[in-house]
Write a structure and sequence with these properties.
By secondary structure, the chain is α/β, with parallel strands linked by helices. The chain has 22 helices and 22 strands. It folds into 3 domains: 5-57, no CATH class; 83-208, Roll (Diaminopimelate Epimerase, Chain A, domain 1); 213-555, TIM Barrel (Alpha-Beta Barrel). The chain is globular.
Amino acid sequence: MTADTILKASSIITMDPVSPRAEAVAFDSATGVIAAVGSLAECQAAAPGVEPTDLGTDVLMPGFIEAHSHPVLSGIYTQDPAHWIARSQGYPTFADVQALWRKVDQSLPSHQPVVFYGLERPGQGAPELTNTDLDEFFPNRPAVVMDISGHEVYFNSATITFNGWADGKPPADPEAARYGRNADGTSNGRAYEPAAVLAAAGKVQAAAIPHPLLSAARWYRKLAEAGITTTSEHAFSTAMASAYEALASVTDSPIRVGLYHATTDPSFTQPFTSQIPEARLWKAGIKMWSDGTPFNGTFAASFPYLDNAVTRNAQIPIGPSGDSVMNYTRVQFDAALDAAAATGLQVAVHAHGDVAVDFVLDGYAAALSRHGLLGTDHRWRLEHWTTGRADQFERAVALGVATPLAAYQFIYQDDMFDGKLFASDIGSQVCAAGDAVRAGARISFHSDSPVAPAIPLLDVQCMVTRRTLSGELHGPNQAVTVDDALKAVTINAAYHLRREHDLGSIEEGKLADFVALSTDPYTVDVAELTDHVKVRGTWVEGRKIDLDAFISEIQAIDPSEHPDLSDHAARNKCC
């Protein structure tokens, strides 16, 4: 292979077990393909006459990969002009959220719609809101408040009027979704699950966010600033295709995206075609949700919440919920799996509770057998594993099921889960990465953004130390090594996206996607990893990404080309 560029670094961490360290890498800038990795002399032999670019003290790694995310939704919900009100963003209590609401209502022009994302009922001490609760803060303007899970939305009376609901009554409940209603049938300012959330919030979102593509681009920028070069969309619908194509089409686009087509879109079995090269934007699989979320009591678990002031104030059912909150019957799930299996793509199913994990594994085992896939490299995925058990990881490995882990549930929530929402023998074991590795699983970590910020180095720090952002220790038996954790955000994540052949490590023949780090992550105290290791920049296919140029390129796109993007984003379900 030819090469016209050489990068030299203080060290190159290749994530290739055969040659884990190198001094230089040579690649062809036209194709973005790596031609040589090794010593500077070896790379100069592959690129005669090329003057190396010396990165000085920087350390080069493969670009970080997040195997489960919602990037367009993340941008629309968290970036200006929307308001991100999660605890991780400086709103630790409901009083802090309420103070922001008052400030926003006083500072914006009258009747301008507003959108807030990330309310955490148990973590912030918020109740399940009604329209009259929100009317106190927003008496005139339409206001929408999204639960952090994406499964529930709250809105005020002005929103009900804005939606044009006759006599204040929402329409009939959509399939697999519902509206909150008062005894007289009028809306109580709540909606649950994507179809109802869309109808309740979509019109307000479209009015409040005039350039949703720019909001999405700002999130792409955050991903790149965290060192990410590849991610996924885990609730793709065909209506979002043009937005992802636009984001991928500009010269300095920093992110590759694998699309997982939600079965809630009638066209989910259809192939994805695009003018964008498949290496940049591709249909990776089919997505379903088996249960809800631990944030509000809708995940399928064999154990109860604790009965205390935290759960009572958040109005969470104590349970255990068992299979009563499952989104499918077994017959329905089998039919959906059969339709997905017929596409030949990966199947990915969300499961937070241990009952949901058993349900999905049972369904997978039967479907894989029906379709002759047992023992093949099907790589069907089970997403999140928040309360997955050791025996369940062992079963997944035996079935060939991939195990992307919701590191964010531990990092941002385990101080709440361990001893406040759940008994410590359950709460301390959230995101049991140690059990997964001992079972032989290839783990990856994800933020499920916008549920949490996407920061791979923080995932590594917290999953190795088993300490949350507060420094509290939970379940040290579930800790993994630094090497396991770095694999989880590089080569293992590429494996989960079926892209390990060209991404995830720095090897000859792979694509030149890199992240430059200020310090070698193997050499610092892992408890202080994010203090000592900073992202200096990223390369995609050998091109050093200019994020300012990327934002300018997206700003130049006429927002009227994507008039319904906010509506389509509201269809997405995260968590």
